[in-house]
Amino acid sequence: MLHDTTTSRIAPAITLEGISKSFPGVRALSDVSLTLYPGSVTALVGENGAGKSTLVKILTGIYKPDGGSIRINGTAVSFPTAHAASKAGVTAIHQETVLFDDLSVAENIFIGHAPKTRFGFVDWAFVNEKARALLKEIGADIDPSIRLRDLGIANRHLVAIARALSIDAQVVIMDEPTAALSHKEIHELSELVEKLKAAGKAILFISHKFDEIFRIADRYTVFRDGRMVGEGLISQTTEDQLVRMMVGRDVGQVFPKKQAEIGEPVLTVAGYRHPTEFEDINFELRRGEILGFYGLVGAGRSEFMQSLFGVTKPSAGAVRIDGNIAVIRTPSEAIAQGIVYVPEERGRQGAVIGLPIFQNVTLPSLGQVSRKGFLRMAREFALAREYTARLDLRAASLDQDVGTLSGGNQQKVVIAKWLATKPKVIILDEPTKGIDIGSKAAVHAFMSELAAEGLSVIMVSSEIPEIIGMADRVIVMREGRIVGRFEREELTAERLVRAAAGIGAVPGEGA
Amino acid sequence: MLTMFLRSRELLLLVAIAALLVVVTWRFPGFITLANLANVYNDTSILIILALGQMVVILTRCIDLSMAANLALCGMVAAMLNFYVPGLPVLLLVLIAVVLGTALGAINGLLVWKLDIPPIVVTLGTMTIFRGTIFLLSGGAWINAHQMSDLFKSLPRGIVAGMPVLSWLSLAVIIAMLVVMRRTPTGRAFYAVGGNPHAAVYTGLDVGYTRFKAYCLSGGFAGLAGYLWVSRYAVAYVDIAAGFELDVVAACVIGGISIAGGVGTVPGAVLGALFLGIIKNALPVVNISPFAQMAISGTVIIIAVAVNARAERRKGRVILKRAEHVA
Q1: Tens digit of pLDDT for each residue in A297-316?
Q2: Which residue segments constitute the domains of chain A, with CATH numbers given?
Q3: Which one, A32, A329, B205, B222, has the greatest CB density within 10 A?
Q4: Nearest to B325 among A25, A348, A363 (CB)
């Protein structure tokens, strides 16, 4: 399978074989293999949802695999707890470091495995001295006695790396370590990766940035839809090949897209910008249209939508609804103007657990169901019944606590709640993330129906099949800016991925 | 609806109260007479009013520790006005107490809303400030029974249709709160804001403003209770109702108002207050020492919290299962 000469003579540091993991209704990983070699950086690439995070969680003992084996230096191991994984020498440095803000740098490095004096107390003198030595070893100019809170992101990463070294980790997982770093910091980080390599660590490097992958990694492994679809040496591949492996898929899913009649512009956004999240957002949304917003996680799509909906304030920008200037400073003004937002995090931002279904549905429409300042329960039930029925909600009674429903049904309640306000524009942020296939299809069918009825839909999605299957037009965002606009006919997975990752156009194409 | 009630915490409390009454009656048969129970209710009226105010604040994931101090300040102002400006009608004094209490509550609300200070810190601070203000106003002096007008003292005791005005007032507050919590958008907002503040934001509810309203309400009730307390006990000084805020919180907790916010009902808060009221009234008549009374009250509170925590933990397991599903 592999014919490389550089590593075949070296024994792998860790080998995963036939790893599978399912969640109810979702198969996150099936029969996945991965091999990491000491002194070598392996890039793990794949779309959002390809199973990368699940694999990291298995490697660090947070999830238990349903099947398969893990071998370290040839010995079979299992990680029943996160502690077991770290004892076995596997450590992860996350995108947002999980460390303790109010402890000192030295305490962060040694927490959980601090050396003790013979009286059983922590040997602070030794801890501080060792921390200083470790930090020096990785070239970090950090005082081990200061609080972590006072460090920037890059220095926090260095602390996390020092921690990894302190437990003598053989396998270091770097999960999008550069997502929050500046150019200079990224440069420093790549020097550090070199040092870790020189120290003989096996490194798994997860990134969406191709320039980085090609600069830092020695090997690659590509995941798609929970399967391993390719691996090899970076020196023997190209960006194009990687992109093709990432997206090349069978069209297994049929999308219930109806052709809606697309009418006049309903929403026009001009010059929207925010000091730190996004800038220069301009677009038009037409009646009956489904406009997809694609991008990598953290591209600023949700941040822009929240701003459009009045949750956060933009620093500049104008919105027109049906041609009239609209001032939106709060979500209630947005709702009054006919814009509603179905947020991504259903649990945190969607349903109010503890309130019954019907009260969840009528929450943004309390004015509509009251008379003279008093709520009319009959009207509440009528409204809730009408919209939950349209969404085919499965519930014993509208009186039951929304918390007793399944995830998919909760999502339906949240969508019903918004439709009951009779909006002109509905923003769906990752509408099918984490729900089962059946509920997904229902949400897609419903989205199509809404557009056919003349509603305008903005669909923020990181799932390429969903974007290609449902959108009439797609805007791609990257690092807070619009970097691509595609009509339905021009949509290909490759173009979307290239735009989102910041790679140039497909060779031989003009656009 | 009926099955929901049968499984509800309110029913559990009713059963507990009935059991308590049975035990007390066994030792002291006179306790269960209608006249005595009416007395106990009358005695508990102020606690009920305060508990309903506190309930609203707790529902929005906040807390009002300044209620008793607010009560004392409003009571002192009403008593001083009654003494120094003899011509003022008593009803105007009641109104002044309510308005002042609402204003003091609004200060709490503004600090929580606009400055985003944790509610426990805000109300711990204002609690001390309110007490200090009473001292500044009164110079530490007491306003005693003989310095208050007769009507000022007798209004809550006046009997209307067989019940004291104080009891009627608390009944009116209960009914008003039932309507507010069940039948108005504001009442619904209290639940939504506490149940899931993030979702409330996206629903167009202003979380801070809703909390502000909750504090105004609890302040207003504290103001009303201030007049009632001072006239009932016919004395006003710096330390009246000292520590009573904890009884109020305890009544809410016993009544099943979740400290985590979003869960709780008017009947629950009322029953929680009555439970405490019965304990305080019944234990002395069955010759239990005041210290044992305190220990018993404390035990009851911990049992109530443990029961609540168990109910919430069950809910937690279901959510965790689903969280795994989502991941």
Answers
A1: 778 888 889 889 988 888 88
A2: 1-89+172-249 (3.40.50.300), 100-168 (no CATH), 253-338+423-502 (3.40.50.300), 352-422 (no CATH)
A3: B222
A4: A25
